[in-house]
Write a structure and sequence with these properties.
heterodimer, A: about 200 residues, alpha+beta, Alpha-Beta Plaits, 2 domains, four-stranded antiparallel beta sheet, elongated, B: about 475 residues, mainly alpha, Formate dehydrogenase/DMSO reductase fold
Chain lengths: ~200, ~475
């Protein structure tokens, strides 16, 4: 993880925010993230974020549930312990549909929620840097990542000119919580030097 | 001025008053940040007392067995399963509101979905108690779960409707809980970020999982909500369908009916909405949320009540017709003698059911009555009484006088412990609901903010003005062009 500098701009209206996002991107600044109190439809597209693949994950989990149910019941009723119910076939698919359906839904839902939490790095006791406390109340907080070449004062002036109500420069730690490192921290280099 | 969001002026506003994003936060978080009123404490303590009585009744049942209840040779299912089906039916409105209405893009659901979902979860918890404790030897309840075991590898019967129920209800509970909690995350973060007290910061900090409101997270959150809604929609319909299979797959006259699944689902939605009305009419008044749960919301829910009540009525008449049309003696006995005959021992329960579920909700054809809060509250209680009697009629009147007159039961009435168990689930339900209304936002803050600029009263007024302006501009341009 590395400590980085961010310029934080607060907007109080999404009708100002949308053109501002366009202008910031046109000016070539890198939007680190925008924090909003509610979902803003179209903002992800405006920021150039790719669509989420959570649906695909959900589908895969669902299929896993279907397979588990059919495989499990099939194994029990045709191989492990076949029971004769009035001469009906052991492979009684119609009677298995309710449980198969329920397990499909259960696997898909639980799997998707866990994946959602993993991708968003969310869990109880996770501490994060919150750029502005009102981002969950009534402000739309745009955060721009600075590099060594960025002139922060210039970025602040630019953001104010496009409608930011409150602008500040903050330092915060970036990165993932599970086993991913930013290039700057270079954990492997340290390891090599230690070995040598 | 270009409008980002537009909604027709014909649609009434869903958020009344002059609201801003911040005002919405203030209004909804207020009850959480202030100490509870005397009314809250009174209600909470009464609920706790009821819960205590329930625990006492259940303890008796565990020690002495189900003989503590007045079940007998033909009535193996009495109050317990009646209450089970009643509670599970109530637990249908929440997910219907949050899932099906999300798919149908109904804006009004945002005002009521959070409380309705919470109600669903608590109702399902209450419902689950009945089949579990009815097992008698409750410490062996895990026998219903399929897992490789040392009992001679004894598997449950996957072809049985009762096992389907185990899966349906546990899945329904899990998915409803996840759906509800995922929706809560952003709102808990809102409370965390404005918290001043240390315990509140800690509690909501842990509970909100570190939610930040990042656009990427919102994007995933929206995708998750949509897929969960898509999954919950067939799920909510499947749960009561499977509950109805508990009866419909048997060969008991009065239960052995193919119309049970749609009939049960309609009844579940009917009673669920009635319970939502009862709870929200009180909640909006006590927590001063009348601007978010408006007369519009009450009106719309009453329309659903009259629709589903009529579907249920249609099902009752169909059942009667088919029992006559089949010319089957046993079906005829179950319907014409045990139910329709007002002078049979339990015939009265059939008429309570008909009166409460089919006839009385018809008053909601009148707009004035739909928008009358007192009438709505009264009706919501009547509907739930009626729906309790529906399950009682189905379960008890079908079995209390069966094929063998020598085994006909004496008049079935519950023991004090059966009633105590039922009251205990009320205690459990309301204890949970009181705690929920104190510690969690009863209205989805982020979702209300999402619809504010489209359906807020103040914004709709502006929309109306903009609409007039553009019409004039258009007329002006049109004149010039020709």
């Amino acid at each position: 993880m590395s400590i980085k500098k961010f310029v934080v701009a607060c907007f109080d209206d999404e009708q100002v925010l949308f053109p501002a996002v366009k202008k910031v991107r046109a000016a070539g600044y890198k939007i680190y993230d925008i924090y909003t109190p509610m979902p803003i439809h179209g903002l992800d597209k405006a920021m150039g974020l790719r669509d989420t693949s959570l649906h695909t994950a959900g589908f895969i989990y669902g299929i896993t549930g279907t397979a588990t149910a059919l495989g499990g019941i099939g194994y029990v009723f045709t191989y492990d312990w076949p029971i004769n119910f009035g001469g009906k076939p052991h492979f009684a698919l119609p009677a298995w549909i309710p449980i198969t359906f329920e397990l499909t839904v259960l696997f898909a839902s639980v799997g998707m929620v866990l994946t959602f939490c993993y991708l968003c790095q969310m869990a109880p006791f996770v501490k994060k840097h919150h750029f502005h406390m009102r981002a969950t109340d009534d402000l739309f907080v745009m955060v721009i990542e600075c590099t060594s070449k960025t002139n922060e004062a210039e970025v602040v002036r630019f953001l104010e000119s496009i409608g930011s109500k409150e602008t500040s420069v903050q330092e915060a730690e970036t990165g993932w919580w599970l086993g991913r490192y930013d290039k700057e921290s270079k954990p492997f280099e340290h390891k090599e030097s230690a070995l040598a | 001025m270009a409008l980002l969001k537009y909604e027709s002026q014909v649609r009434p506003p869903l958020v009344a008053g002059d609201k801003s994003y911040h005002q919405i936060t203030e209004d909804i978080v207020r009850p959480i940040e202030t100490s509870p009123s005397k009314l809250w404490w009174t209600g909470f303590l009464i609920s706790l007392a009821l819960l205590g009585f329930g625990i006492f009744s259940i303890t008796r049942e565990v020690i002495y067995g189900t003989g503590q209840w007045n079940l007998n040779k033909t009535i193996g299912w009495g109050w317990d399963i009646t209450n089970f089906v009643w509670w599970i039916g109530i637990g249908h409105a929440g997910t219907l509101i949050s899932a099906i209405l999300l798919l149908f893009r109904q804006g009004w659901r945002t005002g009521v979905n959070r409380a309705a979902e919470a109600m669903t979860i608590f109702a399902v918890i209450c419902a689950g108690q009945f089949p579990i404790w009815h097992m008698g030897r409750v410490w062996l309840a895990f026998f219903v779960l399929p897992y490789p075991n040392t009992r001679g590898v004894l598997w449950p019967n996957f072809n049985s409707a009762l096992l389907w129920d185990v899966f349906a209800i546990s899945t329904y509970f899990t998915v409803s809980l996840l759906f509800w909690y995922c929706g809560l995350l952003p709102d808990l973060a809102t409370i965390r970020d404005r918290a001043k007290l240390k315990w509140r910061k800690l509690f909501y900090g842990v509970a909100s999982f570190g939610w930040s409101g990042s656009t990427k997270h919102w994007q995933r959150h929206e995708a998750l909500s949509l897929v969960l809604a898509g999954l919950s929609t067939p799920l909510v319909l499947s749960v009561h369908t499977i509950v109805s299979f508990d009866f419909a797959t048997s060969v008991v006259p009065g239960w052995h009916t193919t119309i049970f699944p749609p009939y049960f689902v309609a009844g579940a939605v009917f009673s669920g909405f009635a319970m939502v009305q009862s709870l929200l009419i009180v909640t909006r008044k006590v927590l001063k949320l009348e601007e978010y749960i408006t007369l519009e919301h009450i009106d719309v829910m009453n329309k659903i009540i009259v629709l589903t009540g009529s579907i249920v009525g249609c099902a009752y008449l169909t059942e009667l017709f088919v029992s006559w049309y089949s010319q089957n003696k046993f079906e005829g006995w179950a319907f014409m003698q045990n139910r329709l005959n007002a002078f049979s021992p339990l015939g009265w329960s059939y008429y309570i059911m008909m009166g409460c579920n089919v006839i009385s909700p018809q008053i909601f054809w009148f707009r004035k009555l739909r928008r009358n809060i007192t009438v709505t509250f009264f009706m919501s209680v009547i509907v739930n009484i009626g729906m309790w009697f529906e399950r009682f009629v189905i379960i008890v009147t079908s079995v209390y006088r069966d094929y063998l007159p020598s085994s006909w039961s004496t008049y079935y009435s519950p023991s004090i412990y059966e009633v105590g168990f039922y009251l205990g689930t009320f205690g459990l339900f309301f204890t949970c609901y009181f705690l929920f209304s104190k510690f969690f936002p009863v209205i989805a803050i982020a979702e209300i903010k999402h619809i504010l600029k489209k359906s807020g009263e103040n914004y709709k007024e502006k929309m109306g003005e903009a609409e007039k302006e553009t019409a004039e501009e258009f007329a002006h341009e049109f004149e010039h062009a020709h």
